[in-house]
Specification:
The complex is a heterodimer of chains A (366) and B (466).
Chain A: H1 2-25, E1 31-32, E2 37-38, H2 47-51, H3 54-65, H4 70-84, E3 89-90, E4 93-96, E5 99-102, H5 109-127, E6 133-139, H6 143-146, H7 157-167, E7 172-173, H8 198-207, E8 217-220, H9 228-233, E9 243-246, H10 248-252, E10 254-258, E11 264-266, H11 271-274, E12 290-294, E13 303-308, H12 311-319, E14 325-329, E15 349-355, H13 356-359
Parallel strand pairs in A: 6-7, 6-15, 13-14, 13-15
Antiparallel strand pairs in A: 1-2, 3-4, 4-5, 8-9, 10-11, 10-12, 12-14
Chain B: H1 6-22, H2 28-43, H3 48-67, H4 72-106, H5 121-137, H6 146-154, H7 167-175, H8 181-211, H9 220-251, H10 269-275, H11 278-289, H12 299-317, H13 321-347, H14 349-368, H15 372-382, H16 393-412, H17 416-425, H18 428-454
Classes of the chains: A alpha/beta (366), B mainly alpha (466).
Chain lengths: 366, 466
């Protein structure tokens, strides 16, 4: 018995001291690839930050983020949570029908109002009394198709859309839900698959009075796509494959990216990003405030201004055929008040294409 | 600093253990005092000075009380000690509550002070009071060594969440304590179990409790599920913290009294309170209820004693009316039990258990609110107020999501595993298995807890009100 007490004490002490030594000695990591977020760093020790408690707060974040073998421990936690506790979700993520998805946040009216207010500002400032047709289309999260049938709570997507429509009476709504199926979404990511949404592009184009009927060549990216949920789930899950569509029209397009500094010529598909941290960013290079896509092969004189979130990145190329020029705007990264300097809103179609996820958490819209 | 945090487990605790073990006997209290102040300052850098002031003032008053115990100055000094300690508590914890209610009554709009509550002030105030009162009563001698008294008041294992350790219970250990492998092993067992209760059970249930208010499709059964989860969350959080405190105490050579003894198996509310937060209940009993005359007084005075004690018990938990209502609710239940139900409950054990669970569930609904309105709305929700449906999709989902955790938590809230262990220990083979498996089991728990903490999982601090 005594030996056991000694053994327990020694092993416990060894566990703590080895753990402690590893904490002190392990170099801090800057970024978590799996969670796709920067990790907290060791805060600077200053009298002011100690006095107001900020140092301690930051240190706690640093200690958790940089704990040795954290990735393995995250997987262990996920495994314990789902296998022993039989939790249906781990950190809000669940697996159903071969998909990883995130539990919906409750409907946030303040966020919806904020989005509607930003859209209204754009309408009042740039679009009212102009020869423009304004459209809205809301892309439901994959939970629209996944959650309820699998017994998970979800947003009232139909009600959500109705309420958003009521808040934007100056827009003509285009419903694309009838073309959506679960297979249209990546299994490990929140986004939709470009190769599966050509029917949606067609229906949007048709509703806006244009046509996108050409065929595409389906290209396969030779880099496994571990979507945003894949790392967050912290459990083994097979990756997706990204396919992207090309044809002669798309290859002839002139793509210009506008950010701080001079405009830069670019591509519809950024192959450098295809092999980066988030391969989905290959579509229109991911984060980009303003992009123009000029289509020299266009038979139409129409122009489109597309206000969008990341779902629009993979869809925008599929609308190219119907327009001479598409201006793709992401007001998360550019102030709405500055758009008049860069975008001509005369005689064009304007499409607001946003996901429910963004509209329900719209604080980033400027 | 939280016991259930990486900074404590992998930075603070190894360091304090290392220094403590290496330090000579006469410096051990100084080491504990120093590290306890660092521990407290980690969460409350400013208020560490308030605590030091309390120590100094009550150190002096303790000596004066002892010197003047026989004359009227003794009374003056004990009153001074009580006024100082309770004044601090009143100012930091209750000032805004009184101002708010004064404003509501008079229509005035006196500005609120918006003072941050020093962590653990309710616990260490009661510890200090127990010291000076016991010195006044002659139960203990005043401590002449400031470091020893400081170590008692600031002792980090029980500083921020109890149990409320009385000076009389640790006086000997403060001066002379032994350390042994068997005591250390006992402490480690207790600490790891407490840590697991807090991180694995309380925090997991806490996720649901935190998400509950935002759930759209509320229903009667969802309210009940919430209340049950909340009861268990508070129990495992609080008793887990007490276990960790007791375990750490043993590592440093102390023996703290038990604070929880499976309260949910009680067959009466009075038994529940003999099993729940024992150190608080016994504090009120010994320093308030009995000095007021207890139950050896006439009926009106007895009623006054009961309602005063339970009013203050409720108020101790937080400066909100729902805590007062919560305390008085128990006062009423205890009186009903004493006068009408005692015999019936003794004869009908099954009904008695259900009765305790039902009424404590309601008490936790009251306790869970952030004010009286929310508390009453939660109680209402349990009975379908506002036309709530019986079930909803969210109820079934949450039941499936937390069902196993709830079941494990319910089992762990009873002595079933302890009894099972006792039975298995009677058989040679199973005893050997248990002996062999215990250490790997405890280490595995530590790894899993660490995994939860490294994942940055939900880890609330429930004692901000205390």
């Amino acid at each position: 018995m005594k030996l056991k007490q000694i053994l327990l004490t020694i092993l416990f002490a060894a566990f703590l001291f080895v753990g402690s030594a590893l904490c002190y000695l392990s170099p801090a990591k800057a970024y978590s690839e799996s969670e796709r977020r920067p990790l907290a760093q060791m805060p600077e020790l200053q009298l002011a930050s100690v006095a107001n408690g900020k140092f301690m707060e930051d240190f706690e974040a640093y200690a958790a983020d940089n704990f040795p073998f954290r990735e393995v421990l995250r997987s262990l936690k996920a495994l314990f949570s789902t296998e022993v506790f039989q939790k249906l979700d781990n950190n809000g993520l669940f697996v159903a029908d071969g998909h990883i998805s995130k539990l919906d946040e409750p409907e946030n009216e303040a966020m919806m109002n904020h989005a509607a207010e930003r859209f209204s500002y754009l309408y009042e400032t740039y679009l009212k009394e102009k020869d423009t047709k304004i459209y809205l289309s809301i892309i439901p999260d994959k939970n629209f198709l996944l959650a309820k049938p699998n017994g998970f709570p979800s947003l009232d997507y139909v009600g959500f859309t109705e309420r958003m429509k009521e808040k934007t009476p100056y827009m003509q709504y285009i419903d694309v839900t009838e073309y959506l199926s679960l297979e249209d979404y990546y299994t490990t990511d929140t986004h939709w698959r470009q190769e599966k949404i050509t029917d949606i592009a067609k229906s949007l184009a048709k509703a806006m009075g244009t046509d996108v009927t050409s065929e595409y060549q389906v290209n396969t990216l030779d880099n496994p796509f571990y979507g945003v949920y894949s790392g967050q789930l912290a459990m083994p899950f097979p990756p997706d494959t990204i396919h992207y569509l090309t044809n002669q029209t798309l290859e002839n397009c002139k793509v210009t990216y506008y950010d701080t500094g001079a405009p830069k010529a670019g591509e519809l598909y950024n192959m450098k990003k295809a092999y980066g941290k988030d391969p989905y960013e290959m579509f229109l290079s991911g984060v980009a405030p303003l992009i123009t896509i000029e289509n020299p092969s266009a038979t139409s004189q129409k122009e489109l201004v597309l206000f969008r979130d990341s779902f629009g990145s993979s869809l925008a190329p599929l609308l190219v055929e119907g327009y001479q020029k598409i201006t793709v705007v992401d007001i998360r990264y550019v102030q709405s008040s500055m758009l008049g300097q860069f975008v001509n809103f005369e005689h064009c179609d304007v499409l607001f294409l946003y996901s429910t996820t963004l509209l329900n958490n719209s604080l980033a819209l400027k | 600093m939280l016991f259930s945090g990486i900074p404590f487990l992998y930075y603070f605790l190894p360091l304090v253990l290392f220094v403590y073990v290496l330090s000579p006997k006469k410096l051990k209290n100084s080491v504990l005092l120093l590290f306890s102040l660092v521990f407290y300052a980690w969460g409350e850098p400013k208020y560490v000075f308030l605590m030091l002031l309390s120590i100094l003032v009550n150190y002096g008053l303790g000596l004066l009380i002892e010197r003047h115990r026989a004359d009227m100055w003794g009374k003056v000094f004990i009153i001074l000690s009580a006024v100082f300690s309770l004044g601090m508590l009143g100012y930091f914890k209750y000032a805004d509550f009184f101002i708010e209610n004064f404003n509501a009554l008079t229509g005035l709009s006196l500005p609120l002070l918006k003072i941050a509550l020093p962590i653990g002030i309710s616990f260490y105030t009661f510890q200090i009071l127990s010291y000076t009162i016991d010195v006044y009563r002659g139960t203990v001698k005043a401590q002449r060594n400031l470091i020893t008294l400081g170590a008692y008041i600031t002792l980090f294992p029980q500083l921020i969440a109890g149990p409320i350790v009385r000076y009389v219970d640790v006086e000997k250990r403060l001066l002379e304590r032994t350390h042994s492998f068997s005591k250390a092993a006992e402490g480690i067992r207790r600490f790891v179990i407490g840590l697991s209760k807090k991180v694995l059970l309380a925090n997991t249930l806490g996720e649901f409790c935190a998400a509950f208010p935002a759930i759209g499709d509320q229903s009667v059964l969802l309210y009940w599920l919430y209340v049950i989860a909340y009861m268990l969350q508070v129990y495992f959080d609080f008793s887990g913290y007490s276990d960790m405190a007791i375990g750490l105490g043993k590592l440093f050579g102390f023996d703290f009294l038990e604070n929880f003894r499976y309260p949910f198996i009680s067959s009466s509310i009075s038994e529940f309170w003999r099993r729940w937060h024992i150190s608080l209940g016994s504090w009120f009993r010994d320093y308030l209820y009995i000095p007021m005359g207890g139950n050896r007084v006439n009926k009106p005075r007895f009623l006054l004693n009961i309602f005063t004690v339970w009013f203050l018990t409720g108020f101790w938990h937080g400066a909100e009316w729902n805590f007062v209502v919560w305390g008085l609710y128990f006062a009423v239940l205890l009186l009903i039990e004493k006068w009408f139900l005692a015999e019936f409950l003794q004869k009908n054990r099954v009904i008695a258990h259900l009765y305790v669970l039902f009424f404590t569930a309601i008490s936790f609904a009251i306790f869970s609110g952030s004010g009286l309105e929310e508390a009453l709305s939660r109680v209402g929700g349990m009975f379908g107020a506002g036309g709530l449906p019986l079930t909803s999709l969210s109820f079934w989902y949450q039941l499936r999501n937390y069902g196993v955790v709830l079941l494990i938590a319910i089992l762990c809230a009873t002595p079933v595993f302890v009894k099972l262990k006792e039975r298995l220990m009677q058989n040679k083979v199973t005893r050997l298995c248990l002996e062999v498996l215990e250490i790997p089991f405890l280490l595995l728990l530590l790894v899993i807890v660490t995994a939860y903490l490294a994942d940055g999982s939900f880890n609330p601090f429930l004692y901000f009100r205390f």
